[in-house]
Amino acid sequence: MGEPFPGAVLDVLGRAGDRVVLEHGERAVGAAELLDLVARVAAGLRRRGIGPGDGVALLLGVTPEAFAAILAAHVVGARVVGVRPGLPEAHVRRLLDLDVAVVVVDSPARQGVQLAELCAAEPEPGPPRLGGRPDDVARLIHTSGSTGAPKAVAQSYRAMAAAWTAVPSRWPPAIAELASRLGRYLVFGTLASQVMFEYAVLSITAGGVVVVAEDPSLPGAITRHRASASVITVPRLAKLVAAHLASPADLSTLRALLVSGSPLSASRHREALEALGPVVFHGYGQTETSTIAMAVPDDPPGSVGRPLVPLEVRDERGRVVPSGAGGELFVRSPAQAGGYWGDASESAEVFVDGWVRTRDLGHLDQDGVLWLTGRSRDVVIVNANLHHVGPIERVIAEHPDVAEAYVVAVPDEETGEAVHAFVVPSGEHEPDPAQLRELVIGRLGPACAPTRVTLIREPPLAPSGKPDKRLLPPP
């Protein structure tokens, strides 16, 4: 292993000197100023006893200081837990219980160490001392687990140092093409997002500027900030296309929209290319693996382009299938996660002999282009966030008027996918859909609440006699 993470990122910033790398409102932050913030926050953490292997939770907005705090926590070798906004409070508390030594916040309403205090610390002399140990966990990125509680994906310092993001010589062709268009990369929402943060690093490495959008509504944010690129979900892309067709906006600066979070249908993909021009990049990846494949604007609409990492398509017996045949996707990358924090059984199921079992289905065509065809896991992806349906079914079934509940994912123009619950009443009283929604919101958050409830007398059965949700009537 060479230099520990985030050494490559700090090297990029060091070479950039006073070049502006981040804009926040009227504020333009140069690379040297950002490096100074990193050094100050790292010194502040060390003076609070934080070092290699210690857990640091970050409850932060999207600011230059927040970006610096992420890098600084890695400088001291901490295990970083980013908490995205909008999570139910119970989930936040659970994340903060992941052996966290300090919580860094930027809001007086939250308990913890205020980021402003860390930014005021006196930096240590000389270049930053990198404390990351290769086999220590560098970050925990949470997803929705099969129990309904956040599941923490653990990535080591060795894996993060092996990533291509800040090292142009490692960029695959599709990433090099995207990087050339990241002159002004628009970020919003949260830097706890793996995609938002990593492509911000890619943008800076490529000589671009990370532009913070306080109001991320499109197309306004693109025109207002003269943005050249941003990450976008499938529903937001559909809205942007519709708005642009109804009232064309000045999108002359736009060169790349990275569609992420859920599959993009061929018709939506083609429509976006026709309306916006050759700016659509369709990324496919997972928290466990980072980016797996990426379609550039010249790739076939509906595909996710060529794999960026070793990929195998396997049948139900685990055998690799020939080109063109479908199966489950297994991938391998030096930067992949090592497992799930505190969950050995789930880790053993997904991380198999150096490969990551994606539980997604697809095939490679004769040109080596990857096409996704479905998934083998029972989940719904709402606003690019994955939620297992089992916990939703169990919560709905707790209602006294519900005997059984079966949840499926359905397409949704607003959120990509939404929850559709098929419910078997327990007696004469029909369950109130509004009550079911409130029950789920209180336990699992609004993203898991059913947007539609359908009453059924009994579930359809497979030949084995077990309920088969694939046979439920279409929405």
From TrEMBL:
<dbReference type="InterPro" id="IPR050237">
    <property type="entry name" value="ATP-dep_AMP-bd_enzyme"/>
</dbReference>
<keyword id="KW-0436">Ligase</keyword>
<dbReference type="InterPro" id="IPR000873">
    <property type="entry name" value="AMP-dep_synth/lig_dom"/>
</dbReference>
<feature type="domain" description="AMP-binding enzyme C-terminal">
    <location>
        <begin position="392"/>
        <end position="466"/>
    </location>
</feature>
<dbReference type="InterPro" id="IPR042099">
    <property type="entry name" value="ANL_N_sf"/>
</dbReference>
<dbReference type="InterPro" id="IPR045851">
    <property type="entry name" value="AMP-bd_C_sf"/>
</dbReference>
<dbReference type="Pfam" id="PF00501">
    <property type="entry name" value="AMP-binding"/>
</dbReference>
<protein>
    <submittedName>
        <fullName>AMP-dependent synthetase and ligase</fullName>
    </submittedName>
</protein>
<dbReference type="InterPro" id="IPR025110">
    <property type="entry name" value="AMP-bd_C"/>
</dbReference>
<dbReference type="GO" id="GO:0016878">
    <property type="term" value="F:acid-thiol ligase activity"/>
</dbReference>
<dbReference type="Pfam" id="PF13193">
    <property type="entry name" value="AMP-binding_C"/>
</dbReference>
<dbReference type="InterPro" id="IPR020845">
    <property type="entry name" value="AMP-binding_CS"/>
</dbReference>
<feature type="domain" description="AMP-dependent synthetase/ligase">
    <location>
        <begin position="15"/>
        <end position="341"/>
    </location>
</feature>
